[in-house]
Write a structure and sequence with these properties.
The complex is a heterodimer. By secondary structure, chain A is an alpha/beta fold. Chain A folds into 2 domains: about 130 residues, Rossmann fold; about 180 residues, Rossmann fold. Chain A contains 11 helices and 12 strands. In chain A, the strands form 2 sheets. Chain A has a 6-stranded parallel β-sheet with strand order 2-1-3-4-5-11, sandwiched between helices. In chain A, strands 7-6-8-9-10-12 form a 6-stranded mixed β-sheet, sandwiched between helices. In chain A, α2 packs across α9 and α5 crosses α6. Chain A starts with a helix and ends in a 5-residue tail after the last helix. About 5% of the residues of chain A have low confidence. Chain B is globular. By secondary structure, chain B is mostly helical. In chain B, α3 crosses α10. The chains are: A alpha/beta, B mainly alpha. Chains A and B meet through β7, α7 and α8 of A and α1, α12 and α13 of B.
């Protein structure tokens, strides 16, 4: 018995030593204990958008499951490997890399250290036990927002103002345009990009929004994070001289600003709720089934539309319900386009003269 | 689409939106004339903007808010001036430090005070030319839309330009930047003149920050100045530290910034990235074309050690 054990150990040892480096994978987490999770965000956790929603949702999941949550904010888009190393040193059992900009660094880190990570919009990186992906494709809910805009616009001109063209914004731009086109193909759609990564550029967001309002838009679908407040203030100022029935309305994304100073002219919002995604991923880690793609859709309420204000007509509500059921049933297929060129091409197809 | 209405909106936004840059750039030009290169304007704009926003939120008084911003800027400017002259600190390091402190400090204070809330102001200030010039296409309505702080800022800059050109202090300021030794030999205090110039520059930057958060945007958020302070340094150089020229370049930059929006609205078939490059490309080209004969003040950025220090 002793001899067999020695032979076995020798074979394993020799095999391990002659295996090429690429095949020598680190230990992969399977059914691990989860006491501490961490989230890394590129911007501030109080940016009223993407970063804030991710942090808030993970903290609420942590409180629910009795897990400590470490938050690293304002990490930017540079190499975050030192941050990830610090989090592991602090005992993180799982790290959520909350930006599509971390698509490369986090999978590489997970593979080199064996610490499980969650990435955003990178299904190709998924690896059982090590890397899970959240697809925050808000295009389905954005489609519904487009339906509302198409039915509620009185000028027939609707604008999409974005603070950049990352995949998350692009998915929603196309979804919104398709929803608008489905109910109001004659509408005019104005598409304006504030900047390359102008997520906090409120002054320019305000200027651009003032311009699209001057061009006739009475509904603005704004994707901006902190820059959204520039859009909102442009709308507030424009409405100061208007009757309520002529008011310009705002469609927001990710968070719920109703009931705040920014909610006065809020028509609706494409809400992102990561709570279920995070809960599922932590449960999968505990069960040893971690490492899949989690898609946040209408069906699991990962994305949904904020309840409409009372002023919205019954007809609009009915058509919205129909569209939602159609998407869930697979009768309505919303395009899933991540790249900026694809967005421009699709907008040209849907609204040829405007974009 | 009504082209005239869109052009009016773009011009309105450019006129109003260029004021923070104009005030900061004019302030920087004043400081540079006296030999001080202040890279801390970004921080001053943020600190003053936050202070002004807080006061307006509390009092609903725009005038008080603007005054608060100016005083905050004055204090920051005094601090910079004293450290750069009496403290003999390296101006570049000091300026960058002020910017970093302003960025971090205001973000910290904002979160401590308001957490994840984002309060908005809804102050409606007076429009002196409202509807008076509507008969002039585009420019008339755009002027009519401007609020009183916009006109006040222009009057301030024109007044300062005239005063600095004609006053003894203006002459001393130029001497402090060009030939401080001569200034001291004439019996004036180089440090005193430079500190006064820094205080004036800080006041203008502070006013710019206050205008940004209380008049232009109606809110504060961390990093809300998005590089206006650094752009002010470039525009001050572009305008060769001539206050009126600096002010006009600021307005021109504001208009160019709106150009990408105009071209996108006009369905110009070009990548948005290229369109957004235009204002910055224009700055580089103008610097190349106009900057050939431009001369910076001889003592710009240098610590003055005085006649005693030379013996």
């Amino acid at each position: 018995m002793q001899l067999w054990r020695w032979i076995l150990m020798t074979v394993v040892g020799v095999s391990a030593s002659i295996l090429p480096g690429s095949l020598a994978l680190p230990a992969v987490a399977q059914g691990v204990e989860v006491d501490r999770v961490a989230i890394v965000t590129p911007a501030s956790r109080t940016n009223q958008g993407w970063d804030q929603q991710g942090v808030n949702n993970l903290e609420s999941v942590g409180a629910e499951l009795g897990i400590t949550v470490d938050v690293v904010e304002n990490a930017g888009y540079d190499d975050i490997t030192p941050i990830l190393n610090d989090l592991v040193d602090d005992g993180a059992d799982l790290i959520v890399c909350h930006a599509s900009g971390y698509q490369t660094v986090c999978p590489e880190f997970a593979q080199s250290t064996g610490v499980p990570v969650v990435v955003i919009e990178n299904p190709g990186a998924v690896m059982p036990g090590l890397i899970a992906d959240i697809e925050t494709q808000g295009q389905e809910a954005a489609f519904l927002a487009g339906v509302v805009a198409g039915l509620e616009t009185t000028t027939g001109t609707v604008a999409v103002v974005v603070s950049g063209e990352p995949p998350s914004w692009n998915y929603m731009t196309v979804g919104f345009a398709e929803g608008l086109h489905s109910v109001n193909p004659d509408a005019t759609l104005i598409y304006q990009v504030i900047g390359d990564a102008a997520y906090d550029d409120a002054p320019n967001a305000k200027r651009v929004t003032e311009s699209v309002i001057a061009a006739g838009a009475d509904i603005v679908f704004g994707m901006g994070d902190g820059a959204s407040f520039g859009m909102i203030q442009a709308i507030n100022e424009a409405n100061a001289d208007r009757e309520l029935e002529d008011a310009v309305q705002f469609i927001d994304v990710i968070g719920d600003k109703s009931g705040t100073d920014a909610g006065t002219y809020l028509l609706t919002s494409v809400l992102f709720d990561y709570t279920h995604a995070y809960t599922s991923l932590i449960e999968q880690l505990l069960a040893g089934t971690f490492g899949e793609v989690y898609t946040m859709g209408l069906e699991n309420d990962g994305v949904r539309l904020l309840d409409l204000p009372e002023s919205v007509s019954t007809d609009t509500r009915n058509q919205l319900t129909e569209a939602r059921e159609g998407i869930i049933a697979g009768e309505i297929i919303v395009s899933s386009i991540a790249d900026a060129d694809g967005v421009h091409q699709r907008l040209d197809e849907l609204f040829p003269s405007e974009n | 689409m009504n082209v005239e209405v869109v052009l009016t909106a773009l011009l309105t936004a450019a006129m109003a939106g260029s004021i923070p840059l104009m005030l900061a750039a004019v302030g920087e030009a004043i400081g540079e004339r006296a030999g001080l290169l202040n890279l801390g304007i970004e921080g001053v704009i943020l600190v003053s903007g936050l202070a002004a926003f807080w006061l307006v939120l509390e009092t609903q008084s725009l005038g008080l808010g603007l005054a608060c911003g100016a005083v905050t800027g004055l204090i920051c400017g005094l601090g910079f001036g004293v450290l750069a002259t009496r403290g003999r600190a390296d101006q570049i390091v000091l300026g960058l430090g002020m910017t970093m402190a302003g960025l971090g400090g205001t973000a910290f204070v904002f979160r401590e005070v308001w957490g994840s809330q984002q309060p908005l102001l809804s102050i409606r200030s007076w429009r002196p030319l409202d509807s008076l010039l509507d008969w002039i296409p585009v420019i008339g309505p755009a002027l009519g839309q401007q609020r009183w702080p916009v006109f006040a800022a222009w009057f301030l800059v024109i007044g300062l330009s005239s005063a600095i050109r004609r006053s003894k202090f203006g002459l001393q300021m130029r001497a402090a930047g060009e030939f401080p030794l001569g200034l001291e030999a004439s019996g004036a205090s180089v440090e005193g003149v430079r500190i006064a110039a820094a205080a004036l520059a800080g006041t203008l930057s502070g006013l710019g920050g206050a205008y940004l958060t209380t008049v232009e945007l109606g809110f504060f958020s961390p990093g809300v100045s998005v590089g206006t302070g650094f752009m002010a340094v470039a525009v001050a150089m572009l305008g060769q530290r001539n206050l009126l020229r600096v002010a006009l370049f600021s307005l021109g930059f504001g208009m160019l910034t709106g150009l990408d929006t105009a071209l996108q609205l006009a369905n110009v078939d070009a990548r948005p990235e290229f369109l957004r490059m235009i204002p910055y490309l224009a700055i580089v080209l103008t610097l190349v074309l106009l900057g050939r004969d431009a001369k910076s003040p001889a003592a710009l950025g240098q610590v003055y050690r005085g006649l005693a220090g030379r013996r």
